[in-house]
Amino acid sequence: MNPRLLPALHTQEDLTTLVENRTVYCLDAFELNIFETHQTARRVPLSMGSLVLTTMLRGKKVMHLSGQAAFDYLPGESVIVGEQQVMEIDFPEATPDNPTQCLAVAIPSDTIRHTVDLLNERFPLAEEHTPWHLDANNNTHLTNTPELTGTLERLVHLSQETHAAKDVLAGFTLQELLIRLMQTNARQLIFHNYAQHLTSHRFAQVVQYIKRHFTEQITVDKLSELACMSKATFFRLFKREFGLTPVEYIIRERIAEAKRLLRNPVTTVADVCFRAGFNNTAYFQTIFKKYEGITPGLYKKQYGLG
C-alpha cells in the first residue's frame, strides 16, 4: 500500500490496549477495522464471525490458522480468514517504535453470494467447471496484486469520508474488492501452479507457453490459438479471469526476469534489457520504472549482489 495512504498510527495516550488496539469504521456494506499492536505478544486469538480479508500494513506478525503451518505475515500480503475461523497471532517484533498495523474488512456472506451469482450469470469464466467462487470457510494467504492494493486503498479512503454518497460508493468498491480477490486467487492457482492444471484449464497451457518463451516475440494470435479461442474472446476472458491482459502478464514476467538479472553484479542494464525480452532500452527504462517505481540502474545499485 502507498505509504502516503496508510492510516495514521495512534499515540500511546490514545490507545486503549497495546495489543491489537482496534479502530472500527462501520458502513452499510461492510465493517473496516484497523488493528495496532505496540508490544510483543504471543498466541493472541481473534475471530470476527464473518469472512474477513486482512492486509498487513506495517510490521510483522506470525499467523496460526487451522490446518496450516504457522507463517510470517508481512506488508504487501493478505489473508482471507473464513467464517467462524479463529486466528492466533504472534507479534515477535512489535514495539512502540515499530508497531504492527493491520487492516481487516469483514464481508457479509449475503454480499459474497450476490456478487458471485451475478458474475456467474453475466460474466462467466473460460471453464464452466471452474466458475467464480470465494470459499467462505477456508483460509488463504495471498501476495497482493497492484489491483487489489488499489481497491483496498479506496476502501480505506471511503471509510474515513463523511459525504452522503460514501455508502453507495463503498458498496460498489466492496464488489470490486471481491472480484479482485477472486482474480488474485485465480492468478495464484494458474500462474504459480499451471503444471497441475494443463489438462483441465486452457489458460494453464497459455501460462506455460509464456513462461517458456517470454524472452521471445509472443503474439496474442499464438496464445489464442493455444486456448482454442478467437483472439477477441481470448483477450476478454483472460483479463476477466486474472484482472490483467495477456500483454501485461508477459511484461510482468519480463520485469521479474530483469530484476533477477539486475541482481547479478556482472550484468549491464542494456544486457538485461535484451536478455529479459525487451528490444528497446528506452522502452525498458520506461516500463521498468512504471512497474517498480525506480529505474533499472537504481534497482541494480540498491539490490545488486556485488
TrEMBL record:
It comes from Hymenobacter nitidus. Keywords: DNA-binding, Transcription, Transcription regulation. This is AraC family transcriptional regulator. PANTHER family: HTH-TYPE TRANSCRIPTIONAL ACTIVATOR RHAS (PTHR46796:SF13), HTH-TYPE TRANSCRIPTIONAL ACTIVATOR RHAS-RELATED (PTHR46796). SMART domains: HTH_ARAC. SUPFAM superfamilies: Homeodomain-like. The lineage of its organism: Bacteria, Pseudomonadati, Bacteroidota, Cytophagia, Cytophagales. Residues 204-302 form the HTH araC/xylS-type domain. It comes from the Bacteria. Coiled coil: none annotated.
